[in-house]
Amino acid sequence: MTEKREPGPFTGRHAAMILVAFFGVVIGVNMVMASFALSTFGGTVVDNSYVASQHYNEWLARAEAQDRLGWDESVTVDEGRHVRLTVRKDGAPVKGLRIVATLRHPLGQTPARAMRFAPAADGALRSLDALPAGRWQLDLSVHRGADEARYRVDLQ
User: Three-state SS for 16?
Assistant: First the structure.
């Protein structure tokens, strides 16, 4: 039969090791979480909210003018990963459009770049360059004469 051994006394050394281990785990987890947060933060929406608020009524007026145009946009990605844009009014494609398009990565990991469009056979506009793999934001500024509409579309 084996003899039971009595545990030794709880000393200050034991307490110090427990405290160091506990805070070591807490600090380690905090450092990992901070590095994840810094690597995925895309930045601020506006640099100065006061200055942005001065343009609020202008933005509302622009949005109301865009709504009065009655344009419906459809943005899709075809099997070749080209972006297809169709702007319709009352079901018919709107002709004579000038497009300014900027492709951005949602987290700002790559520089923004312009996308160019050319007319397709079905009345749509098709991007000249294929969309890279991953998630993207496409900022569109659609012009016809003095009319302008702006759209932001998330693509994958």
Answer: helix
- For residue 7 the two structure tokens come to 């545990």
Closest CA to 127 of 75, 98, 84: 84
pLDDT in tens, the chain (156 residues): 677 888 889 999 999 999 999 999 999 999 999 998 888 776 677 788 898 899 999 999 999 999 999 998 899 998 889 999 989 898 888 888 899 999 998 887 788 999 999 988 877 899 999 998 888 999 999 999 999 999 999 998
CB 98 within 8 A of CB 143: yes
d(Cα 46, Cα 53) in Å, to the nearest integer? 10
CATH topology of domain 67-155: Immunoglobulin-like (2.60.40)
User: How far, in Å, CA of 133 to CA of 55, rounded?
Assistant: 35
Domain ranges of the chain: 67-155
